[in-house]
Protein backbone atom coordinates (compact mmCIF):
# COMPACT_ATOMS: atom_id res chain seq x y z
CA UNK A 1 0.00 0.00 0.00
CA UNK A 2 1.34 3.46 -0.76
CA UNK A 3 1.68 4.38 2.85
CA UNK A 4 1.78 8.12 2.75
CA UNK A 5 -1.15 8.13 0.33
CA UNK A 6 -3.62 6.62 2.76
CA UNK A 7 -3.10 9.05 5.57
CA UNK A 8 -2.71 12.45 4.02
CA UNK A 9 -0.54 14.83 5.99
CA UNK A 10 -2.25 17.80 7.50
CA UNK A 11 -0.24 20.84 8.39
CA UNK A 12 -1.11 21.84 11.90
CA UNK A 13 -0.48 25.28 13.29
CA UNK A 14 2.05 25.66 16.05
CA UNK A 15 0.84 27.34 19.19
CA UNK A 16 3.53 28.20 21.64
CA UNK A 17 2.66 27.58 25.28
CA UNK A 18 4.36 28.89 28.38
CA UNK A 19 7.23 26.57 29.28
CA UNK A 20 6.32 24.17 32.07
CA UNK A 21 8.54 22.78 34.76
CA UNK A 22 10.75 19.96 33.70
CA UNK A 23 11.22 17.70 36.69
CA UNK A 24 9.58 14.31 36.38
CA UNK A 25 8.39 13.94 39.89
CA UNK A 26 8.23 17.27 41.67
CA UNK A 27 9.21 17.50 45.30
CA UNK A 28 6.23 17.37 47.66
CA UNK A 29 5.59 20.84 49.06
CA UNK A 30 5.73 21.48 52.78
CA UNK A 31 2.88 23.16 54.74
CA UNK A 32 2.73 26.83 53.90
CA UNK A 33 4.69 26.35 50.68
CA UNK A 34 2.74 27.24 47.57
CA UNK A 35 3.43 26.62 43.93
CA UNK A 36 3.93 29.84 42.08
CA UNK A 37 1.14 30.30 39.59
CA UNK A 38 3.55 30.93 36.76
CA UNK A 39 5.35 27.61 37.23
CA UNK A 40 2.31 25.36 37.64
CA UNK A 41 2.36 22.64 35.04
CA UNK A 42 -1.15 21.56 34.16
CA UNK A 43 -0.21 17.93 33.65
CA UNK A 44 2.36 17.17 36.36
CA UNK A 45 0.83 19.42 39.02
CA UNK A 46 -2.87 19.04 38.32
CA UNK A 47 -3.90 16.18 36.02
CA UNK A 48 -1.30 13.58 37.03
CA UNK A 49 -1.97 13.61 40.78
CA UNK A 50 -5.67 13.12 40.04
CA UNK A 51 -5.06 10.37 37.49
CA UNK A 52 -2.63 8.55 39.78
CA UNK A 53 -5.24 8.53 42.57
CA UNK A 54 -8.04 7.09 40.41
CA UNK A 55 -9.33 3.67 41.45
CA UNK A 56 -7.45 3.88 44.73
CA UNK A 57 -4.17 4.24 42.84
CA UNK A 58 -4.70 1.21 40.58
CA UNK A 59 -2.68 1.98 37.44
CA UNK A 60 -4.80 -0.07 35.06
CA UNK A 61 -7.98 1.59 36.29
CA UNK A 62 -6.48 5.00 35.53
CA UNK A 63 -5.36 3.77 32.11
CA UNK A 64 -8.83 2.52 31.18
CA UNK A 65 -10.52 5.63 32.54
CA UNK A 66 -8.22 7.90 30.55
CA UNK A 67 -8.61 5.91 27.33
CA UNK A 68 -12.40 6.10 27.63
CA UNK A 69 -12.25 9.86 28.15
CA UNK A 70 -9.92 10.31 25.20
CA UNK A 71 -12.16 8.09 23.06
CA UNK A 72 -15.20 10.22 23.76
CA UNK A 73 -13.70 13.67 23.12
CA UNK A 74 -15.99 15.72 20.87
CA UNK A 75 -14.64 17.44 17.75
CA UNK A 76 -14.19 20.90 19.37
CA UNK A 77 -12.10 19.39 22.17
CA UNK A 78 -9.95 17.53 19.65
CA UNK A 79 -9.49 20.75 17.69
CA UNK A 80 -8.43 22.60 20.85
CA UNK A 81 -5.89 19.89 21.69
CA UNK A 82 -4.62 19.91 18.13
CA UNK A 83 -4.04 23.64 18.14
CA UNK A 84 -2.05 23.33 21.39
CA UNK A 85 -0.04 20.17 20.79
CA UNK A 86 0.22 19.28 17.11
CA UNK A 87 3.51 20.12 15.46
CA UNK A 88 4.53 19.67 11.87
CA UNK A 89 8.11 18.76 10.95
CA UNK A 90 7.64 16.16 8.20
CA UNK A 91 10.10 13.40 7.58
CA UNK A 92 10.16 10.39 5.22
CA UNK A 93 11.22 7.07 6.69
CA UNK A 94 10.93 3.61 5.02
CA UNK A 95 8.79 5.19 2.33
CA UNK A 96 6.23 6.65 4.71
CA UNK A 97 5.77 10.36 5.36
CA UNK A 98 5.50 11.22 9.07
CA UNK A 99 4.28 14.68 10.17
CA UNK A 100 6.86 14.61 12.97
CA UNK A 101 9.25 12.10 14.52
CA UNK A 102 7.41 11.19 17.73
CA UNK A 103 4.93 8.34 17.88
CA UNK A 104 2.74 6.59 20.41
CA UNK A 105 4.33 3.29 21.42
CA UNK A 106 2.49 -0.02 21.22
CA UNK A 107 0.45 -1.10 24.20
CA UNK A 108 -1.09 2.24 25.10
CA UNK A 109 -4.12 1.85 22.83
CA UNK A 110 -4.07 -1.86 22.08
CA UNK A 111 -7.55 -2.01 20.58
CA UNK A 112 -7.46 1.36 18.85
CA UNK A 113 -10.34 2.83 20.82
CA UNK A 114 -9.06 6.42 21.07
CA UNK A 115 -7.50 6.85 17.63
CA UNK A 116 -8.45 10.46 16.82
CA UNK A 117 -7.07 11.66 20.16
CA UNK A 118 -3.41 10.72 19.57
CA UNK A 119 -2.69 12.97 16.56
CA UNK A 120 -4.53 15.76 18.41
CA UNK A 121 -2.14 15.26 21.35
CA UNK A 122 0.76 15.85 18.98
CA UNK A 123 1.81 12.34 18.00
CA UNK A 124 3.18 12.10 14.46
CA UNK A 125 2.26 8.41 14.25
CA UNK A 126 0.36 5.85 16.26
CA UNK A 127 1.13 2.18 16.84
CA UNK A 128 -1.93 0.19 17.93
CA UNK A 129 -1.81 -3.31 19.40
CA UNK A 130 -0.17 -5.56 20.19
CA UNK A 131 -3.10 -7.59 18.92
CA UNK A 132 -3.27 -11.34 18.48
CA UNK A 133 -5.19 -13.53 16.03
CA UNK A 134 -7.48 -14.70 18.84
CA UNK A 135 -8.97 -12.35 21.42
CA UNK A 136 -7.51 -12.99 24.89
CA UNK A 137 -7.91 -11.60 28.40
CA UNK A 138 -4.20 -11.34 29.28
CA UNK A 139 -2.79 -12.12 32.70
CA UNK A 140 -4.63 -11.79 36.00
CA UNK A 141 -4.78 -8.38 37.68
CA UNK A 142 -2.94 -6.61 39.16
CA UNK A 143 -0.55 -6.59 36.20
CA UNK A 144 0.49 -2.95 35.89
CA UNK A 145 2.57 -1.07 38.49
CA UNK A 146 3.89 2.48 38.69
CA UNK A 147 7.32 2.95 40.22
CA UNK A 148 6.93 6.65 40.77
CA UNK A 149 10.24 7.70 42.25
CA UNK A 150 12.00 5.79 39.47
CA UNK A 151 9.74 7.28 36.75
CA UNK A 152 9.16 3.69 35.66
CA UNK A 153 6.47 1.10 35.04
CA UNK A 154 6.39 -2.67 35.39
CA UNK A 155 3.77 -4.49 33.34
CA UNK A 156 2.83 -8.10 32.73
CA UNK A 157 -0.33 -7.39 30.76
CA UNK A 158 0.12 -10.49 28.56
CA UNK A 159 -1.37 -9.11 25.33
CA UNK A 160 -4.86 -8.48 26.65
CA UNK A 161 -6.74 -7.54 23.48
CA UNK A 162 -9.98 -7.97 21.57
CA UNK A 163 -8.31 -9.78 18.67
CA UNK A 164 -7.26 -8.88 15.15
CA UNK A 165 -10.74 -9.11 13.60
CA UNK A 166 -12.21 -6.65 16.11
CA UNK A 167 -9.37 -4.19 15.49
CA UNK A 168 -9.82 -4.51 11.72
CA UNK A 169 -13.52 -3.72 12.10
CA UNK A 170 -12.74 -0.68 14.24
CA UNK A 171 -10.09 0.62 11.85
CA UNK A 172 -12.50 0.25 8.92
CA UNK A 173 -15.12 2.26 10.83
CA UNK A 174 -12.73 5.03 11.90
CA UNK A 175 -11.23 5.54 8.45
CA UNK A 176 -7.83 7.07 7.68
CA UNK A 177 -6.02 9.02 10.39
CA UNK A 178 -4.13 12.25 9.71
CA UNK A 179 -0.92 10.43 10.73
CA UNK A 180 0.57 7.05 9.78
CA UNK A 181 -0.74 4.01 11.61
CA UNK A 182 1.43 1.11 12.73
CA UNK A 183 -0.18 -2.15 13.76
CA UNK A 184 1.70 -4.35 16.22
CA UNK A 185 1.14 -8.10 15.93
CA UNK A 186 1.86 -10.75 18.53
CA UNK A 187 1.24 -14.45 19.01
CA UNK A 188 -1.96 -15.70 20.66
CA UNK A 189 -1.14 -17.30 23.99
CA UNK A 190 -2.99 -20.56 23.17
CA UNK A 191 -1.13 -21.01 19.88
CA UNK A 192 1.90 -23.29 20.21
CA UNK A 193 5.22 -21.72 19.25
CA UNK A 194 5.64 -24.01 16.25
CA UNK A 195 2.38 -22.62 14.82
CA UNK A 196 3.36 -19.00 15.46
CA UNK A 197 3.87 -18.10 11.78
CA UNK A 198 0.27 -18.96 10.86
CA UNK A 199 -0.99 -17.08 13.90
CA UNK A 200 0.87 -13.88 12.88
CA UNK A 201 -0.24 -14.42 9.28
CA UNK A 202 -3.90 -14.53 10.29
CA UNK A 203 -3.57 -11.14 11.98
CA UNK A 204 -1.48 -9.74 9.14
CA UNK A 205 -4.10 -10.64 6.51
CA UNK A 206 -6.87 -9.01 8.53
CA UNK A 207 -4.96 -5.84 9.39
CA UNK A 208 -2.39 -4.96 6.75
CA UNK A 209 -4.94 -3.12 4.58
CA UNK A 210 -5.25 -0.52 7.33
CA UNK A 211 -1.60 -0.24 8.29
CA UNK A 212 1.15 2.08 7.10
CA UNK A 213 3.55 -0.34 8.76
CA UNK A 214 3.36 -3.62 10.63
CA UNK A 215 5.37 -4.16 13.81
CA UNK A 216 6.24 -7.77 14.56
CA UNK A 217 6.37 -8.07 18.31
CA UNK A 218 8.67 -10.95 19.24
CA UNK A 219 10.05 -9.24 22.31
CA UNK A 220 7.33 -9.02 24.95
CA UNK A 221 8.49 -10.76 28.12
CA UNK A 222 4.89 -11.55 29.07
CA UNK A 223 3.96 -14.31 26.60
CA UNK A 224 5.77 -17.56 27.43
CA UNK A 225 8.38 -18.44 24.77
CA UNK A 226 7.64 -15.41 22.56
CA UNK A 227 11.17 -14.04 22.74
CA UNK A 228 12.56 -17.26 21.23
CA UNK A 229 11.00 -16.09 17.95
CA UNK A 230 13.88 -13.59 17.82
CA UNK A 231 16.14 -16.55 16.95
CA UNK A 232 17.54 -16.63 13.45
CA UNK A 233 15.45 -19.45 11.94
CA UNK A 234 12.15 -18.45 13.53
CA UNK A 235 12.67 -14.83 12.49
CA UNK A 236 13.47 -15.81 8.91
CA UNK A 237 10.34 -17.94 8.63
CA UNK A 238 8.18 -15.21 10.11
CA UNK A 239 9.52 -12.44 7.89
CA UNK A 240 9.23 -14.63 4.80
CA UNK A 241 5.56 -15.25 5.58
CA UNK A 242 4.78 -11.58 6.19
CA UNK A 243 6.44 -10.39 3.01
CA UNK A 244 3.88 -8.15 1.36
CA UNK A 245 3.01 -4.62 0.32
CA UNK A 246 3.30 -3.03 3.78
CA UNK A 247 6.66 -2.29 5.49
CA UNK A 248 7.35 -4.75 8.29
CA UNK A 249 9.44 -3.72 11.29
CA UNK A 250 10.74 -6.03 14.02
CA UNK A 251 10.53 -4.95 17.65
CA UNK A 252 13.39 -6.30 19.73
CA UNK A 253 14.11 -6.82 23.41
CA UNK A 254 16.75 -4.79 25.24
CA UNK A 255 17.95 -7.95 26.96
CA UNK A 256 19.41 -9.58 23.84
CA UNK A 257 23.19 -9.90 23.66
CA UNK A 258 25.02 -8.07 20.88
CA UNK A 259 25.79 -11.30 18.97
CA UNK A 260 22.09 -12.25 19.12
CA UNK A 261 21.08 -8.80 17.85
CA UNK A 262 23.68 -9.01 15.08
CA UNK A 263 22.30 -12.37 13.97
CA UNK A 264 18.76 -11.03 13.99
CA UNK A 265 19.79 -7.98 11.98
CA UNK A 266 21.34 -10.19 9.35
CA UNK A 267 18.03 -12.03 8.95
CA UNK A 268 16.11 -8.75 8.85
CA UNK A 269 18.35 -7.46 6.06
CA UNK A 270 18.14 -10.75 4.13
CA UNK A 271 14.38 -10.92 4.39
CA UNK A 272 13.76 -7.29 3.51
CA UNK A 273 12.44 -6.02 6.85
CA UNK A 274 11.77 -2.27 6.67
CA UNK A 275 13.29 -1.47 10.05
CA UNK A 276 13.80 -2.21 13.72
CA UNK A 277 11.90 -0.97 16.75
CA UNK A 278 14.29 -0.80 19.69
CA UNK A 279 13.35 -1.57 22.37
CA UNK A 280 10.61 -3.36 24.27
CA UNK A 281 10.58 -3.52 28.07
CA UNK A 282 13.41 -5.14 30.04
CA UNK A 283 13.54 -7.99 32.52
CA UNK A 284 16.40 -6.20 34.29
CA UNK A 285 15.69 -4.24 37.46
CA UNK A 286 18.63 -1.83 37.47
CA UNK A 287 18.23 1.84 38.28
CA UNK A 288 15.27 1.66 40.66
CA UNK A 289 14.89 4.15 43.49
CA UNK A 290 15.11 2.79 47.03
CA UNK A 291 11.42 3.53 47.64
CA UNK A 292 10.42 1.40 44.62
CA UNK A 293 12.50 -1.65 45.55
CA UNK A 294 9.45 -3.39 47.06
CA UNK A 295 8.02 -3.61 43.52
CA UNK A 296 11.21 -4.89 41.88
CA UNK A 297 10.11 -8.49 42.42
CA UNK A 298 6.89 -8.08 40.41
CA UNK A 299 7.12 -10.20 37.26
CA UNK A 300 6.98 -8.38 33.94
CA UNK A 301 8.79 -5.85 31.79
CA UNK A 302 10.28 -2.66 33.16
CA UNK A 303 10.02 0.59 31.18
CA UNK A 304 10.69 4.27 31.69
CA UNK A 305 13.76 6.03 33.05
CA UNK A 306 15.74 2.88 34.03
CA UNK A 307 15.60 1.83 30.35
CA UNK A 308 16.93 5.06 28.82
CA UNK A 309 20.58 4.11 28.55
CA UNK A 310 20.05 0.50 27.54
CA UNK A 311 17.67 1.33 24.68
CA UNK A 312 20.09 4.02 23.48
CA UNK A 313 22.93 1.48 23.48
CA UNK A 314 20.80 -0.98 21.50
CA UNK A 315 19.81 1.71 18.98
CA UNK A 316 23.46 2.65 18.54
CA UNK A 317 24.46 -0.98 18.11
CA UNK A 318 21.74 -1.58 15.50
CA UNK A 319 22.72 1.56 13.63
CA UNK A 320 26.45 0.80 13.66
CA UNK A 321 26.00 -2.87 12.82
CA UNK A 322 23.81 -2.14 9.79
CA UNK A 323 25.64 1.01 8.71
CA UNK A 324 22.30 2.80 8.84
CA UNK A 325 20.70 0.44 6.28
CA UNK A 326 17.78 -0.43 8.57
CA UNK A 327 15.78 2.55 9.82
CA UNK A 328 15.22 2.46 13.57
CA UNK A 329 12.28 3.54 15.67
CA UNK A 330 13.87 4.28 19.04
CA UNK A 331 11.76 3.65 22.14
CA UNK A 332 12.58 3.16 25.79
CA UNK A 333 13.02 5.65 28.58
CA UNK A 334 12.42 8.88 26.70
CA UNK A 335 11.48 11.14 29.60
CA UNK A 336 12.68 14.44 28.11
CA UNK A 337 13.33 16.09 24.78
CA UNK A 338 17.01 15.60 25.46
CA UNK A 339 16.58 11.83 25.84
CA UNK A 340 14.84 11.80 22.45
CA UNK A 341 17.58 13.85 20.80
CA UNK A 342 20.21 11.49 22.15
CA UNK A 343 18.28 8.50 20.77
CA UNK A 344 18.11 10.19 17.37
CA UNK A 345 21.80 10.95 17.57
CA UNK A 346 22.43 7.28 18.38
CA UNK A 347 20.82 6.38 15.06
CA UNK A 348 17.03 6.39 15.41
CA UNK A 349 14.98 8.02 12.66
CA UNK A 350 11.78 8.12 14.68
CA UNK A 351 11.00 7.77 18.39
CA UNK A 352 8.07 6.54 20.44
CA UNK A 353 6.81 7.27 23.94
CA UNK A 354 4.98 5.20 26.50
CA UNK A 355 6.17 5.71 30.08
CA UNK A 356 7.31 9.28 29.40
CA UNK A 357 3.78 10.11 28.31
CA UNK A 358 2.39 8.64 31.54
CA UNK A 359 4.75 10.75 33.67
CA UNK A 360 5.05 13.92 31.61
CA UNK A 361 1.84 14.01 29.53
CA UNK A 362 1.37 15.70 26.18
CA UNK A 363 3.88 18.49 26.91
CA UNK A 364 6.56 15.86 26.37
CA UNK A 365 5.14 14.95 22.95
CA UNK A 366 5.31 18.55 21.85
CA UNK A 367 8.78 19.10 23.30
CA UNK A 368 10.13 15.99 21.57
CA UNK A 369 8.48 16.80 18.25
CA UNK A 370 9.97 20.29 18.32
CA UNK A 371 13.45 19.29 19.38
CA UNK A 372 13.56 16.39 16.92
CA UNK A 373 12.93 18.79 14.07
CA UNK A 374 16.32 19.11 12.36
CA UNK A 375 16.71 16.73 9.46
CA UNK A 376 20.14 15.18 10.00
CA UNK A 377 21.55 14.80 6.53
CA UNK A 378 24.68 12.94 7.61
CA UNK A 379 22.84 9.67 7.91
CA UNK A 380 21.03 7.57 5.35
CA UNK A 381 17.49 7.67 6.70
C1 LIG B 1 1.62 -1.10 30.16
C2 LIG B 1 2.48 -1.36 28.97
C3 LIG B 1 1.99 -2.17 27.95
C4 LIG B 1 2.78 -2.42 26.83
N1 LIG B 1 2.28 -3.19 25.82
C5 LIG B 1 3.02 -3.39 24.71
C6 LIG B 1 2.50 -4.12 23.62
O1 LIG B 1 1.36 -4.58 23.64
N2 LIG B 1 3.29 -4.30 22.54
C7 LIG B 1 4.56 -3.79 22.46
O2 LIG B 1 5.24 -3.97 21.45
N3 LIG B 1 5.07 -3.07 23.48
C8 LIG B 1 4.33 -2.85 24.58
N4 LIG B 1 4.84 -2.12 25.61
C9 LIG B 1 6.23 -1.61 25.50
C10 LIG B 1 6.27 -0.18 24.98
O3 LIG B 1 5.73 -0.07 23.69
C11 LIG B 1 7.72 0.32 24.96
O4 LIG B 1 8.47 -0.44 24.04
C12 LIG B 1 8.39 0.23 26.33
O5 LIG B 1 7.48 0.56 27.35
C13 LIG B 1 9.61 1.14 26.43
O6 LIG B 1 9.24 2.49 26.23
P1 LIG B 1 9.00 3.52 27.45
O7 LIG B 1 10.20 3.42 28.34
O8 LIG B 1 8.80 4.84 26.78
O9 LIG B 1 7.77 3.05 28.15
C14 LIG B 1 4.08 -1.85 26.74
C15 LIG B 1 4.55 -1.05 27.77
C16 LIG B 1 3.77 -0.79 28.87
C17 LIG B 1 4.31 0.08 29.96
UniProtKB/TrEMBL annotation:
Cellular component annotations (GO), alphabetically ordered: cytoplasm; plasma membrane
Location of this chain's protein in the cell: Cell membrane; Membrane
Dihydroorotate dehydrogenase catalytic domain sequence ranges: 91-370
Family of this protein: Belongs to the dihydroorotate dehydrogenase family. Type 2 subfamily.
Active-site residues annotated for this sequence: 220 (nucleophile)
Taxonomic source organism: Actinoplanes aureus
A Pfam family matched in the record: DHO_dh
PANTHER family per record: DIHYDROOROTATE DEHYDROGENASE (QUINONE), MITOCHONDRIAL (PTHR48109:SF4), DIHYDROOROTATE DEHYDROGENASE (QUINONE), MITOCHONDRIAL-RELATED (PTHR48109)
Protein name listed in UniProt: Dihydroorotate dehydrogenase (quinone)
Alphabetical UniProt keywords: Cell membrane, Flavoprotein, FMN, Membrane, Oxidoreductase, Pyrimidine biosynthesis
Cofactor(s) needed for function: FMN
Disordered: region residues: 1-32
Membrane-topology annotation of the record: Peripheral membrane protein
Assembly with partners or alone: Monomer.
Primary location recorded for the protein, binned into one broad class: membrane
Pathway entry: Pyrimidine metabolism; UMP biosynthesis via de novo pathway; orotate from (S)-dihydroorotate (quinone route): step 1/1
Cofactor note: Binds 1 FMN per subunit.
Function of the protein: Catalyzes the conversion of dihydroorotate to orotate with quinone as electron acceptor.
E.C. designation(s): 1.3.5.2
GO biological process, one term: 'de novo' pyrimidine nucleobase biosynthetic process
Superkingdom to which the source organism belongs: Bacteria
HAMAP family according to UniProt: DHO_dh_type2 (MF_00225)
